[in-house]
Amino acid sequence: MQEHSIDSCQKAKRAIQDTLDVVGGKWKLVLISVLRSGKKGFNELSREAGISPRILSKELQELEMNGLISRTVYQTKPITVKYELTPYCATLNDVLAALEKWGHQHRQKIISEG
Amino acid sequence: MQEHSIDSCQKAKRAIQDTLDVVGGKWKLVLISVLRSGKKGFNELSREAGISPRILSKELQELEMNGLISRTVYQTKPITVKYELTPYCATLNDVLAALEKWGHQHRQKIISEG
DNA sequence: GTTATCTGTTACATAAAGGATAGTACTTAC
DNA sequence: GTAAGTACTATCCTTTATGTAACAGATAAC
């Protein structure tokens, strides 16, 4: 029983760590939630999320590598790039919803406690 | 409409950031998931989670400040301290479940893709 | 008194993350 | 050719996170 507990803990730990590796950090979930309102350009994302270009570039690459967003180049006058969520990203909906809901209720709790 | 989108994004961003501030980082959710199998002592947690005493001490303090775990001192022969989840911590169940589920399915996806 | 256990803390050091500022490359408008 | 817009990249620096090792206070066993 003790062994079983430890074992299932290990699995839970690993799964949680996996998720946080992909989607943790300061910006990834924020970028995803911003992109939920539609595809966006680089500078647009930078402005809306309040993230510096260097970090944004890195984060977008990582998100793309994990199949959560796609990068499309448009051959417009000044070349344009749009980032958007992939269908796979929708699998994160429960995670996002849970995080958002808890964050909201936790803030309410703190406010009500003074 | 554009305004509305940006506004709701801001709220989502804030809520998500709040949650990650409380429960983000490398260890907090792991410690919580470890404590789910019952109250544990300091060294016990250190061993089971594979976390060094310095970090463990800091993380436990932060979790306690946020009302997610409680610390109880027992007047045993060598003084003993037990940490355990608070009832409030149960409000994180959805978050934990979502993270664990996604981490698991994502791993499966990566494995199946080679 | 020496060793051991339990709970941590302190000091020191490295690693990872994040940020500020400029600059590159291309194109269009003036 | 000068400015401005798009999409980044490069450099440098600060902050945060994490880790290691040693140590301190208390109690008990030997």
Please provide a written account of the structure.
The structure is a homodimer of 114-residue chains. With 114 residues, chain A is mostly helical. Chain A has a single domain, classed as Winged helix-like DNA-binding domain superfamily/Winged helix DNA-binding domain (Arc Repressor Mutant, subunit A, Orthogonal Bundle). Chain A is 63% helix and 11% strand. Chain A has five helices and two strands, in the order H-H-H-H-E-E-H. Chain A has a two-stranded antiparallel ribbon with strand order 1-2. The longest helix of chain A is centred in the first third of the chain and has 22 residues. The termini of chain A are far apart. The relative contact order of chain A is 0.12. The model of chain A has no long low-confidence stretch (mean pLDDT 89). Chains A and B meet through helix 1, helix 2 and helix 5 of A and helix 1, helix 2 and helix 5 of B. Chain B binds a DNA duplex (30 and 30 nucleotides) through helix 4.
Sheet with most strands: strand arrangement of chain A: 1-2
Oligomer: homodimer
CATH superfamily of chain A, by name, is Winged helix-like DNA-binding domain superfamily/Winged helix DNA-binding domain
Helix/strand class of chain A:
mainly alpha
Main sheet makeup of chain A: 2 strands, antiparallel
User: How much is the average pLDDT of chain A?
Assistant: 89
**Do you know the CATH architecture of chain A?**
Orthogonal Bundle
Please state the CA-atom Rg of chain A, rounded to the nearest Å: 18 Å
Count of strand segments of chain A: 2
Spans of chain A with pLDDT under 50 lasting ≥5 residues?
Answer: none
Q: Hey, roughly how much beta strand do the residues of chain A contain?
A: 5-15%
User: What string gives the helices and strands of chain A in order?
Assistant: HHHHEEH
Count of separate structural domains of chain A:
1
